[in-house]
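Recall that a protein's primary structure is simply its ordered list of amino acids. Everything else, from secondary elements to tertiary packing, is in principle encoded there. The following example makes that idea concrete.
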Amino acid sequence: MTKLLSRRNFLKFAGGGLVAAAGARLLPTDLKRNLLRPIEVVRAQNGDPDLYLAGTDTWISVPSSPEIPIFHPDDLAPAPFTTYMFGFRNVTGMNKPQKEGQKGKAEYPSPLFWIDQYDDTGNPNEFRLTITNLGLSMRPDLIDEHTVHFHGLRNIIPFYDGEPNTSLAVPVAGEFTYAYRVREPGTYMYHCHVEDVEHVHLGMTGLVFVRPIQDGQTYEYPVGSGKTYNKFAYNDGDGSTGYDREFAMLLSEVWAEAHWAFSHVQLPEWSEYRADFYLLNGRTYPDTLAPNGYGGSTDFRNPVYDNQGNLTPTPGYEHLQYQPLSSLVQANEGERVLLRFSNLGFTKQNMTLSGIKMRVVGKDATLLRGRDGTDITYETNSIFIGVGESYDAIFEAPPYQGPGEYDTYLLYNRNYRHLNNLAPSGHGGPMTEVRVYPSGTLGPQTQPNT
């Protein structure tokens, strides 16, 4: 063994591996697929993944506008949809025919999911995510590969980073399993990193967050208040990031001309980029208030499908079949609410909560504490979110005033051009409502955005 693993032999093996990895990018698709088969064997030996995503395309619905009559709505879009997109689809637990039947039925934004912080001292919990590439129903001529890149994830080995120059990308009909041991809780984004300008803008983006090890412990906060929490945004040690309810808010954009160009086998000029629609969780107001479209399920990882594996739209909201994530925020008075903001568009955003102060407790999956433990969180009602940034903000629902069923506060983008859906008047775009109910009206929240 000593002779076999000499430094010289080790360098030979390592160099050979690098050459093989580099050469694999030049191999025909069928041969690359064969090279990926050992990964499939590993997955089978270790059981099913925690989450199974499929990369493909889809159609969604955004409002019509007189400002862009040529490109929107897309004349190829089947009713009631308007806009061509790429995306991922949650196919966890489906059989092979059901998975293959999801080609052309991606979700936008890509599925929301969450994982537990890796704990190597207690219960090791490696998270395994498998992706497969179903190809594009509208553009079979495009044989783009796909990856899953965790934006902002620290200390990940290149093999699982999803950046195609240093890790594997999945060809059409292939699959690959990522393994994560995430040690930093907080809010992240994920996206395909192949042709990332195109794939990110066309919809292969989603929000993921990591729950801290502190979850499940009980803290009183503030001390002496009598209020206790067992769900937290971070390992704060004092309960200051405790919350009762949480809501994910992914900001993105649609440049209608680019989407039209892809469905019509054209090539957009990205240097002329100009977003037409700004979205919150893949929808524009008032669709942001519509219920979740998971067939009535409150567990995103176990949606209600029809017998073909398709998402079943909420009656009356058939146009949102592939935009299933609601942005409506609901809470009882006095409850603490965690808002997880992420921006995966190409434009800076400014989200404002009218009438309620938010306390920003985290940025880019980092608790806002100084090196010496100094609290550097801050209160605001407006958060300026740059491209690729995430923020964690907590607010306490104010006392219910009445006389209606609930009090309403607006959460919206301050830039009116982003907010009007290109209409001459009225509101749209990234805006939703915060509804505050009398104490005890709503039962405990079991899943985000419910």
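DSSP finds six helices and 21 strands in the chain. Residues 7-24 form the longest helix (18 residues).
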